[in-house]
Design a protein that fits this description.
The chain is mainly alpha-helical. It is built from five helices and no strands. The longest helix is centred in the N-terminal third of the chain and has 31 residues.
Amino acid sequence: MSLKKRVLVWFFWSLGLTNLLRAGIGWYLLPLLSDIPHTLPLWLWFGSYGAWGIWFIITAYRHPPYPKPLYLMVLYQAWCWGVDLLFVRSGYARALWGRDALLSLISVGVVWGLARPARH
């Protein structure tokens, strides 16, 4: 396996594990958060993190050829931005959109750079 593919696999494993960790922490803290009003049901927030985590780990395990990892990253970023734009009402979270946009572009760029086929 090439170095680029190994880095891509590691990147997807880390995204999968961090999303599973977010889901686990969310389910653990669910009783403490249940009294706070939310724009989206908490089970949907934390369940979606778990689903994304599993999907990233499966992708890392199977390390498919280009362009499937890029499609997954673009879909993940679209989901993150869709949730932010539709359901996040906090001024603090909106203040971080510039940072979030930069991180989204970097993550898609990293996956594109690592997943594209080598030119001969």
